[in-house]
Design brief:
Length: 464
Amino acid sequence: MTAVTRRKLLRTAAIAGAGGIGLSAIGKVGSWAAAPPEPVLLKTARIQAKLMDVGQTKNVLTYGDAGMPPVLRMKKGEPFAARLVNAIDDPTTIHWHGIRVPNKMDGVPFLVQPYVYTGDHFDYAFTPPDAGTFWYHPHCNTLEQMGHGLTGVIVVENPNDPQFDAEVVINLRDWRLGDDGQFIDQFRPRDAARSGTYGTVRTANWLDQPQFDAPAGGLVRLRAAITDVTRVYAFRVEGAEAMVIALDGNPVPQRFAPDALQLGPGQRLELAIRMPDDEGAVVSLGDVRGTKPKILATLRAVGTSLKRGLRDLAPLEINPVQQVDLAAAEHISLSLSATAENVPSDGICGSLGYSFWAINKVPWPGDTSDPTAPLAELKLGKSYVIDMENLTPQSHPIHLHGMSFKVLSSSTRPVQPMISDTYLIQPNEKVQLGFVADNQGDWLLHCHIIEHQKSGMTSYVRVA
Ligand code: C2O
Ligand code: CU
């Protein structure tokens, strides 16, 4: 990767380096079959951070000592290990969003692992089977912990990837801050019952509109993860030719221009951007959804043109996800609806105190010692098709843990047969998602608008 020299990128790189102290070791250890990798230390911390011009915001949460949680780098098919040390006054866990990990490593309290209390630690170890862009976050008291900062990006590298001239990794998220730069109420009930409560300050890598330098005429691999708790984005690139090469950690079957492409919380966008030939030319990545379009980040062309071509870019390698057998698949009906029922939660991982939403008419009661029955009991190795229907006027990014699905069809729009872990279902849409139940355990399925997740729109499937 060509050195990208601007200060803001250096800051990102430095952050990635800080979190990646164990990572260079992993690369070496990977070739010895027996030696476990050096664990990356992920220690929760309550810090101050500059998110607005008015000064430091207090009560920001991160992993590490300062700034954004590190960008974690893993290698496809090589063991990874991390030790979560909990140094905040709230139980926590880590979920590796989109990575097909063994059930015990999935980070969901009660369902698969104990809470990690203040002062305790938990060791995570797994081998990522797929290359791509993923992310990590707690799965306990998530509205509060993620809302205050605990969301980080993961890059799983593949040595067989095509050659880019630069890579830019962007963590997209909002903050609910008042004019004084301090946190305000994390949600409003009437918004939680609609599209969710939006943040007031929008950032990329915890910065307002960072600029990255990239070689003129070069090919940039831009990886963006929507780690926000609420916001749905519509992406557009201006000032350069750009192609979507991967979504949600998997190559897209057909590349396309990101013309107001909508993606929701939990989803990841990978673009190949062909930088302009002229030094100083600026390319922007914007969110054009709703009435207030926003430039999220910019790229500035530097040096003499490398004269690369987007069309020369070889395809990304397909991840080893099993092919669903449609002829033999059993169908699972799943409906998303609003509810008026009230279910009190006795869990300690944070209840909003409301239930507004339901899956198959059942509002999830929160993490309890007596959870509701699974949505479906699946047979290990068998193919399934989820027939999912959205009966609400809002869109919902529905995320399945532990397994990747293929998007088979939609009632309202043409869809590519993409492999993904999160599908943004639109109002009144019906969609079919096919997958092989090849990972044993209890796997959560929920809306990634965290207020929806925490007020009923959660369930799970059991694979045995
Ligand atoms: Cu990204 Cu259940 O989570
Ligand atoms: Cu939702």
